[in-house]
Amino acid sequence: MIAHLRGALASSGADHAVIDVNGVGYLVGASAKTLDKLGAVGEQVTIHTEMLVSEDSIRLMGFASADERDWFKLLTSVQGVGAKVALAILSILAPEELRTAVARADAATIARANGVGPKLAQRIVNELKDKAGGLSLGGVGAAAAPSGGAAADAVSAMLNLGFRPAEASAAVNAASDELGPAATLDALVRLALRKAAK
């Protein structure tokens, strides 16, 4: 799994960017908010990624922060929300704004996104209310590693393995405390899995 890319911004479009990493151009789908944060063509960027694999394609999605990536995964876990709709929502709402909207059951705010009707917005609010409660935006990832870095990627890996956000955050936080700030992603995930199994 590709957790992040660091390289030069080669080009960007309405819904994607191409990141040049040592001569290889990675096409990543992205929200408008992420594209705005990338800066000018030629600048060095770091982008968090999520790989989507289906029967007929492999696509890479890119995010300005691990928080945004985690919200993308939560959104796409809702029936009827695909990558395109999730990016549309993240194009108009920052992760913190989305968290507030879900916590307040504010379906109207979510329904402002392209392709999101009132019924789908209500389903998103209903299904994510419990799941989003444990997703500490700027929480465990930022506390365990100021740059987001390995701790944020470890939480993402735990979420991919099916752990709830609160469980993933707690396990990675405990592992990070034990291993220290220099811990590698691999070491963090291994120890977090052991902590979560107890």
* Low-pLDDT regions: 134-147
Class of secondary structure makeup: alpha+beta
Residues in β-strands, percent: 15-25%
Helix and strand pattern:
EEEHEEHHHHHHHHH
Q: Report the major sheet.
A: 5 strands, mixed, barrel
Number of contiguous helices: 10
Q: How are the strands of the largest sheet arranged? A: 1-2-3-5-4
Can you give the mean pLDDT? 85
End-to-end separation:
26 Å
Shape call? globular
Rg calc: 17 Å
Helix content: 40-55%
Beta strand count: 5
Structural notes for this entry:
The chain has 198 residues and is an alpha+beta fold. 52% of the residues lie in helices and 19% in strands. It contains ten helices and five strands, in the order E-E-E-H-E-E-H-H-H-H-H-H-H-H-H. The chain has a five-stranded mixed beta barrel. Helix 2 runs parallel beside helix 8, helix 8 crosses helix 9 and helix 8 packs across helix 10. The longest helix has 16 residues. It is globular. The two termini are 26 Å apart. About 7% of the residues have low confidence.
